[in-house]
Amino acid sequence: MGFWWRPLGVLASVLFLALILWAASGPVAALAFLAGIQAFVMLRRLWQEFRLARWLENPDEVEPPDATGTWGDIFYRLQKLQRRQKASRSELTSALEQFEHAAQAVPDGMVILNGNEQIEWCNPASRKYMGLDCERDRGQFIRYLMRQAHFLDFLDAADFSRRLVCKSPASREITLSLQLVPFGEGKKLLVARDITDLERVDAMRRDFIANVSHELRTPLTVVGGFVETLADGPDLPPGESRRYFDLMLDHTRRMQRLLDDLLTLSRLESEEHALKDETVNVADMAQALATEAESLSRGRHRIRANIASDAGLKGSLQEIRSALGNLVSNAVRYTPEGGDIALSWSVRDGEGVFAVTDTGEGIAPEHIPRLTERFYRVDRSRSRETGGTGLGLAIVKHVLTRHGGRLDIQSVPGKGSTFSAIFPTTRVLAQDAASARVIPFPEREQGSRLSA
């Protein structure tokens, strides 16, 4: 009834006036009055409809009409609907912008496909992973842009629980995991995730297990064979028995060194193993390492230590000792007899540099990036002959990483190599004396062996 009371009241008033005119002036005057009122109503209605149409065509530019009576109520309610619509549109626009910003920030590639598998939208990451461009490729069929047979089979299957692992069409160095997700009515969302690092870690895990099994199989086979020989022939000559026991001891020690290095790596990689900061006297450590290098060399090399700084380091004494010891022991193992080995400690541009230089066979450039991988060897047969476990440089890398340092390798095939453990300025302690010391080691008594 809220709407009808006003028009019914106006109609009743008009009829009442018409009756008064009928009584006073006759029916002609009354009909003329009603005709005039009808014309006025029609003209007013046309005018209000014109104002309404003009406003609806340009609601953002034309001011809302202002009127009284029923048309005023209509205009007021339309204005309320318009304000609600603007608020909803603003919220939707804001939500859409947030979605686009979020989608652009997502590291995964995302592509929205319509029912015909045409591209409706894609985020910036899809360019990196799939070579797509949102502006250029909008409306294009995804099949025409990514034509790999396994990808087309993946699209045809439309199995939302399945993932496709493949190389990126934009870069063969990137491995992708693709998945289709239902998105709205008749649409699909194609998600591309970079799993290159996961694949690399998985490959390293497989290689690690294979290498450990291979490294342990040989000494276990040798020891087992000798034990069977001794069990079958208990009356072997003393000399031959001694040789068997010496070989078993060598292979047992090799397995022990391997297990010790594996435990060391496990401890270094453990998040629970906190780094212990101690004061490390690198000058004294370098002298001790040179002495041990001479003991390991047994006079086969010329060894010297160049100590150009008395600066120390802040870090784990045991870990730094293990890392530097591995660098020195590798130099002794892989330098031919009669070669030179130089240990040096200096401070360059605020960084502490412990370098080991040898005149060995050198390393080809293609091998250098992989030297710190576990069990990676340039020459496997020679490495086993020298007693290496293949984990030394991996330990060095982990120790330096924990101390914020890095390993620099410079090598020239046929001339030798320089392995430099570089510690950051924050780890270098104040230098007490700047005088350089060169300590040669022509002949010394046998000392303890270096860490493997």
Explain what the structure shows.
With 452 residues, the protein is α+β, with helices and mostly antiparallel strands. The protein has 4 domains: 5-100; 106-194, Beta-Lactamase, CATH 3.30.450.20; 201-269, Signal transduction histidine kinase, dimerisation/phosphotransfer (DHp) domain (Helix Hairpins), CATH 1.10.287.130; 278-440, Heat Shock Protein 90. 52% of the residues lie in helices and 17% in strands. It has 13 helices and 13 strands. It has a 6-stranded mixed sheet with strand order 11-12-10-9-7-13, covered by helices on one side. Strands 2-1-5-4-3 form a 5-stranded antiparallel sheet, sandwiched between helices. α1 packs antiparallel against α2 and α11 runs antiparallel to α13 (392-402). The longest helix has 37 residues, at 69-105. The termini are far apart.
What is shown here, in short?
With 452 residues, the protein is of the alpha+beta class. It has helices at residues 5-25, 27-57, 69-105, 125-130, 134-137, 142-145, 149-157, 196-232, 238-269, 282-297, 317-334, 380-386, 392-402, and strands spanning 109-113, 119-122, 163-167, 175-182, 188-194, 278-280, 302-307, 313-315, 340-348, 351-358, 406-412, 416-423, 437-440. It has four domains: 5-100; 106-194, Beta-Lactamase, CATH 3.30.450.20; 201-269, Signal transduction histidine kinase, dimerisation/phosphotransfer (DHp) domain (Helix Hairpins, Orthogonal Bundle); 278-440, 2-Layer Sandwich (Heat Shock Protein 90).
Index terms:
disordered C terminus; 452 residues; six-stranded mixed beta sheet; Beta-Lactamase; 4 domains; elongated; alpha+beta; five-stranded antiparallel beta sheet
